[in-house]
Amino acid sequence: MCDHTMDPTGDVIFKLNNPNVPLAIWDDEQPPVQATGPGPFADTPPAIPIAEPAISAENASLASNMPPNQQDSEATSQEDPQLTRLPLEPVTFLISSRHLILASPVFKAMLTGGWNEGDKISGPFQVSAQDWNAEAVTIVMNVLHNHYGQVPKTVTLKMLAKIAVIVDYYKIHEAFQAISQLWIDALRKQPLPTCLGNDVTLWILVSWVFEAANTFKYVTKVAVLRSREDVKVPHELPIPSAVIDRINQDRKDAMDLIAAGIGGLQQDYVEGRAGCDFECRAMHLGALMLSLNNLNFSGHPSKPHFGNCSLTKVVDILSGMKSPKWCTLGRVSREHQCPPGPPNVEARAFKLDVGEKTPRNLVIGVLNGYAALLVNGAKDKMEGLLLADFVSSTT
Asked: Looking at the record's lineage, which domain of life comes first (predicted)?
């Protein structure tokens, strides 16, 4: 007797061993498993990745004192959160091989080949997986068997991410094209995240698996702009390393371009190539160094760079730099005016467009005007990633 019957005449028993392994540790949940490492982004809590299904026989080491239940193990636990999570009873599904073979090349290989996950000794074919969320597997099986009346019209972002991992593993993207768009559209009624956190990780995963190009571009842009160091994603999540590498490379390239320009300006003031006269150079160099102090900037000529900070912080501080004002003494005292031309330029401040608002009273002067030109020069590295650049390379 199976826990879920997708087809009364089904010829495959799908056994989910050790179900409901957490996708991550969340702020609003007491962790049921021990955290093992840092989260995928800077400034985020530790995360434990969901595991891919193991290609192995069923798990035979169930705890003898563990009562049968199918409750989500991510629920709040009254036990010591530092204790290792004990495996739960398996969840079984009676399913149709015909539906699976049509939808999934992976299932086709299991059911017609010799994979360890598919085993037919006597009676129905036996297929096993482990660690996935039982509710997510149920939704996936209902979609594959065309039981759309049993498929929820909306799901949470976490649940959609759990579904996405399964969809990607079994290569059943086509079967989920329509319903995934409905789920994403419903979630997009709320604003996408503008700060780093687990939600950004999940949105990158979801938008990648279900090919939501606009969402993918936006959340990868957030990752580029908000991360203070290289983005790291657990390898168990099916986000291509090429995507994460490009996020990190775009951030580095933008930082290097801006730092090189600022470092060059600083050196120009020191060596007399910028500024009108001694007073002009001294005033602007001092103001520049005061602003850069908040960015842990190293202006070494060979490798100028910013400290452990995000592009958002760099742009915010540089756009707010104030150019000094002073009067030149003489028969008629007048306010000093630098002649036009680099680096004595004016430019419109760059707007990041991920929740930021350019201050209304922002005054463009010599320093922040030049910085704006540098930022705009790196703009193509700060716009997020195009899904098409990666889909074509992985298909």
From this structure: Eukaryota
- Rg, C-alpha atoms of the chain: 28
- Model confidence pLDDT, tens digit, residues 268-278: 888 888 888 88
- In which residue are the tokens 């994460």 written? 244
DSSP line for 128-196: EEESS-HHHHHHHHHHHTT-GGGS-S---HHHHHHHHHHHHHHT-TGGGHHHHHHHHHHHTTSPPP-S-
Please give the Cα distance from 360 to 105 (Å, whole number). Answer: 56
**Domain termination site, one of 147, 169, 189:** 189
Q: Span 341-357, mean pLDDT?
A: 53
Q: Which residues pair with 341 in a beta bridge?
A: 344
Residue 218 to residue 206: CA distance in whole angstroms: 13
Q: Does residue 180 surpass a pLDDT of 70?
A: yes
147 is in which domain, residue-wise? 4-189
Count of structural domains, the chain: 2
**Are 127 and 110 a contacting pair, CB within 8 Å?**
yes
Residue-wise pLDDT tens digits, 106-146: 999 988 865 555 455 556 888 999 999 999 999 999 999 99
- The answer to whether residues 76 and 166 belong to one domain is yes
What is the biggest distance separating any 2 CA atoms in the chain, rounded to whole angstroms? 107
* Residue 89 domain flag: yes
- Lowest mean pLDDT of 8-17, 210-219, 231-240, name the range: 231-240
CA distances from residue 131 to 302, 321, 334, 383 in whole angstroms, order as listed = 50, 52, 75, 36
Residues 279 and 167 in one domain: no
| 327-338 tens-digit pLDDT | 777 666 667 777
* DSSP code at position 302: T
The pLDDT, as a whole number, for residue 294 is: 76
225 within a domain of the structure (yes/no): no
Among 189, 210, 236, which residue terminates a domain?
Answer: 189
Q: Which helix (H) or strand (E) holds 217?
A: helix 213-226
